[in-house]
Design brief:
Layout lengths: L5 H7 L11 E6 L3 H18 L4 E5 L7 H6 L4 E9 L2 E9 L2 E5 L4 H4 L2
Parallel strand pairs: 1-2, 2-5
Antiparallel strand pairs: 3-4
Length: 113
């Protein structure tokens, strides 16, 4: 399986919303599943629906974290959204593109940025 990135998305013919380049406007401490699936999802919607035109830079808060994986995927990840909305069943997926990169303060190269 190929690692998700902008080139793979382009080759796959993905036709959902994607924001490739935008200024970094948010410094977010934490890169876990909840923050990415909730907070960064809302930033992605703001980009699509309200022309916010911004990206989030994540900071890995503890040494064993996800920075390497997030950066290998160029900040992209797939969100599976399941539940109900207005009484209707929701079973959707969306590639989130509101994250630009993740800093690891435990790595000297990232610490010196």
């Amino acid at each position: 399986m190929e690692t998700l990135n902008y080139q793979v998305l382009e080759k796959s013919g993905y036709d959902g919303y994607i924001l490739k380049n935008a200024p970094e406007k948010v410094l977010q401490f934490g890169e876990g599943n909840f923050l990415r699936a909730f907070v960064d999802y809302w930033f992605d919607l703001a980009n699509e629906k309200a022309d916010w035109n911004g990206k989030c830079v994540l900071v890995q808060p503890i040494a064993p974290g996800l920075a390497k994986m997030i950066n290998e995927q160029e900040g992209l990840y797939t969100l599976y959204l399941r539940g109900s909305e207005n009484g209707q069943k929701v079973d959707d997926k969306r590639v989130i593109s509101s994250v630009s990169r993740c800093l690891n303060p435990y790595e000297k190269a990232d610490y010196e940025k």
